């Protein structure tokens, strides 16, 4: 079970159920069809006693919060609580078991109490970047050092169309001429250390960058300075680091303050 705590949604399965159900409603499915699709999708999980409670509770509580509680789901969720099987999973840790009992009691109160009015569920706004693969962005830190980031590809998902950036192996005070951009290698990432010491400069050298609160690359201090050629593997490149245009400058400021500059001709 992918649970990391006693909270109702401190559980991979519960989070997936909540998110998938909401997405179905955002896509325009009616209440009954969304419920039936969820139950069909999680049919195998519902046969697993250790996971079934997570599905029934997550679905019932999510429906309740949206004013769409299905009576059948409600009854199955209450039965899952009453069976005691869920608490049995926490029996080896009395402290967590007590917290989980409180979670289940609150869920029961929500499911058996007055239900809120039915809420509309709209698909969230989806920002689409105007950057293109091959674009190069520059960022100048407060100390005058400059770094360059190239757009390796554009990642298109449900919530946004966002650039995946890779730092070029360059730090200087001037912008290199256009022909030089194609000769710059990607900056290698410094492996993470697990000993609790501060991260070294360029612990991350690639990012998927989202627009948040309408702050895009230009308003965050980045400038589009030119194109560069595609690199092998760009179309399938994946980065483990997700950030926003607000947060990326903070990381670059630290990198450009602590890291030595590239020799300039």
From TrEMBL:
InterPro entries: DUF4259. Pfam families: DUF4259. Residues 117-126 have a biased composition (Basic residues). Residues 111-130 are annotated as: Disordered. This is DUF4259 domain-containing protein. It comes from Micromonospora palomenae.
């Amino acid at each position: 079970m992918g649970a990391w705590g006693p909270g109702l949604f401190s559980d991979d399965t519960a989070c997936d159920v909540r998110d998938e159900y909401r997405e179905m409603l955002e896509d325009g499915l009616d209440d009954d069809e969304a419920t039936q699709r969820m139950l069909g999708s999680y049919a195998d999980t519902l046969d697993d006693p250790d996971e079934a409670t997570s599905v029934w509770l997550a679905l019932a509580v999510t429906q309740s919060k949206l004013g769409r509680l299905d009576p059948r789901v409600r009854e199955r969720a209450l039965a899952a609580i009453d069976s005691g099987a869920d608490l049995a999973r926490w029996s080896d840790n009395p402290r967590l078991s007590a917290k989980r009992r409180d979670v289940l009691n609150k869920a029961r109160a929500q499911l058996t109490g007055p239900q809120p009015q039915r809420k509309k569920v709209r698909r969230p706004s989806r920002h689409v970047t105007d950057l293109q693969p091959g674009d190069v962005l520059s960022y100048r830190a407060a100390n005058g050092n400059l770094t360059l980031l190239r757009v390796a590809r554009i990642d298109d998902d449900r919530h946004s169309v966002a650039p995946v950036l890779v730092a070029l192996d360059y730090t200087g005070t001037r912008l290199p001429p256009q022909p030089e951009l194609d000769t710059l290698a990607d900056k290698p990432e410094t492996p993470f250390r697990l000993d609790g010491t501060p991260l070294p400069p360029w612990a991350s050298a690639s990012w998927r960058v989202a627009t948040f609160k309408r702050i895009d690359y230009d308003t965050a201090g980045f400038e589009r300075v030119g194109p560069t050629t595609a690199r092998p593997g760009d179309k399938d490149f994946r980065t483990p680091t997700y950030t926003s245009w607000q947060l990326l400058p903070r990381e670059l400021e630290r990198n450009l303050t602590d890291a030595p500059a590239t020799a300039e001709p």
